[in-house]
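=== RUN LOG ===
request id: a7f3
mode: sequence -> structure
chains: 1
length: 479
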Amino acid sequence: MLLAAPPRPLAPFRHARRALRAFSSPPHAKSLPPPPAAASAAPPALRRSLHSPKGRAHEFRDALDASLARRLPQAYGVASFDEYLTTLRRGAAALEGRGGSAHASPREARRGEDAAAAAASELQAGVGSFRLSPREVKAHLDLHVIAQDEAKRALAVAVCDHYNFARRALASAEVAEGCHVKPNVLLLGPSGSGKTHLMRALTRLLRVPFVKADATKFSATGYVGGDVDDVIRSLVSAAAGDVALAEYGIVYIDEVDKLAEPPHRALLGGGGGGVNTRDVQCALLKLMEDAEVPLKEVTPPRTLAPRGEPPRRVVRTRHILFVFSGAFTSLEQSLRQQHAADDVLHLARTADFTRHGLEVEFVGRLPVRVACRALQVDELVRVLTEPKDSVVEQMRSDFLGYDIELSFTPPALRRIAELAHAEGTGARGLLTILEGVLRDFKFELPSTTIRHLEVDVETVSDPASRLEALLRAEGVKPE
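=== RESULT ===
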C-alpha cells in the first residue's frame, strides 16, 4: 500500500494533460509527472524512479493503480476508475476547445462541460429562437424612447433581418457561410435626441451580448490609445467568456463623427494626421466584414504550462451587428446651407459623408442610415412623464430614499421642458434642470418633518425662495 490516507482531490492530477499522457504512454516513455501524494508515500526506490526523467510509464501506472484505483472514483464522484479516466480525457478536451486550462480534475472538467452546455443553450435560447417581428421590437422601444419613430422602425427592421438570418445560420452551416450583407446601422442626430437610449432599450429586449464604445478612444495600431479589436474582446466578456455567443452580439460605437476628418484639416495636420481617423476607419471596416480577432490569453507560469502550443482562440465577426452613431454637427450645418431648412440630417447622402471625412468603403458598409430629430418642448414633456425609466421617476425614487413624496404640477413639467430645450442638449438637459431645482431641497428636507414636496412653476422659477418658505414654516434656518 503506497498511501496511508486518501489524497487531496486536486493533488494527483493537477496537470491533467501530462497525467493523461502517463496513462496512455507505452512502457518506454521517459518523463512522467508523479502525483505528489503518491510520490511522497512511495518507497525510496520507486520514488526515485517516479521523479527520474528515465522513470517508466508502467511503473507509474502500476503504482497509481495499486494505491488509488479504489479511492479516486469516490474522491471525484465517479462510478469507476475507467469512468474517471474517460471523464478526465473528455473534460480536458472540452476545456481546451473553449480555451480553458487542461490542468483540471474530472470534477472541474465536468463543470467545464456543463458551462459549455449552458452557453450553447443560451445561444439557442437567444439567437436560435429569435421570432420577434419589427412591430414588436418597435412597441418595446416605444415604452422607453419618446418620438424618433423613423429611427425605431429602421432599427427594428435591421435587428429582425439580422437575427432571422442568424437563426437560420445556426441551423444550417450552408446558410451560415452563404453570401449575406449585414444591415449595419448608422444613427445620426444631435446630442440628447435618444440615440444611446434607443440602443439601451434594444438590449433589454434581445438576449445577446452587447458592448458600447466611444470612437474617440481608438487609435491606429502602434499608437497610444485603444485598439479597435479590443471592442470585440469586450464582447466576449459581455458573453461571460463564451466565444460562440459573442459571435452573435451587437457592437455599438458612439461619436463616430469624431473619426471624420475633412481633407482640409488633414492637410493642416489636424486630428493627428489620420492616426485617429482614417486608419481607425480602415480597421473598423475590416471588423464589419468577416474578420478573426485573436483573444489575449493569460500565459500560465512555466512550471504549470502544458506541453505544446496552446489552442489559439479567435472571435469571428461575420455575424456581429455593428451600430454607429454621431451628431455630425459640421455636416448638419453644411446641409442647412444647401437646403435652407433646419431638419436636414435625413437628407445626407454618401457623398456628403465622404466630403466630411468618412471613407467611402466605411460608409458603404453601413447600409441602414437614419436620422434622429432634435426634441421639441412637447416631446420633452413626454420624456418627463411617459417612459418607465424617466428622469422624473428617478427624482421621485431619490426623494423616497428620504421618505419624502415628490410630485409635479403639469405647468411645472412644461416649464422644466422649456428650460431644457433652451439648454440645447436635448433630453439630457432635463436632468440638468431638475438637479439645479431640487438639489437644495434634497439637502435640507431630509432633516425636517416634511414628507411631501409638490413642485410647481414658482418652485422651478425660484427654488431658493420656495425652500426658504418651507424651512421657515418648520422653524429651521437654512444653511
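=== NOTES ===
The CA atoms of residues 404 and 451 lie 4 Å apart.
The mean pLDDT is 76.
=== END ===
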